[in-house]
Amino acid sequence: MSRILDQRILLLVISFSASVQSTKVLSEWKKCGDPECQKAMSRVQATTDYLGPDCRYLNFKAGEEIMVYSKLSRENENLWTGSKGKDFGYFPRDAVKVEEVLIGDEVEVLTKETDFLCLHEDKYTFE
């Protein structure tokens, strides 16, 4: 009985550590077009296919159009946030080229924990 309990506790610890890793903060700061990060900053076109490592990332094919809403700053400037149709997520800035700048003045704001959760069918998913 004790052995089964030990195994269950070990599985719980492993599950929790995997959850924390997949929802970890990618950056403390981001740049946006407005303080609420609701306005699109630019329109970009994918230059390569991209498949992200988890559900927080936006997957796309070369040639697809993406609207950019924020750019992580300071610790992780390579990741931008954007949408393609109904899909929303992070992607590397070097996988796209800027087609049109919609907002020139960027505002730097603190990120929130909810910035790094997966969103599926209007519900937050904890990995």
TrEMBL record:
It is found in: Endoplasmic reticulum membrane. GO terms for biological process: endoplasmic reticulum to Golgi vesicle-mediated transport; protein secretion; vesicle cargo loading. Residues 39-101 form the SH3 domain. GO terms for cellular component: endoplasmic reticulum exit site; endoplasmic reticulum membrane. Pfam families: SH3_2. This is MIA2 protein. InterPro entries: cTAGE_MIA/OTOR, SH3-like_dom_sf, SH3_domain. SMART domains: SH3. Residues 1-22 form the signal peptide. It comes from Ptilonorhynchus violaceus (Satin bowerbird). It is a single-pass membrane protein. Its main location: endoplasmic reticulum. Keywords: Coiled coil, Endoplasmic reticulum, Glycoprotein, SH3 domain, Signal. PROSITE patterns: SH3 (PS50002).
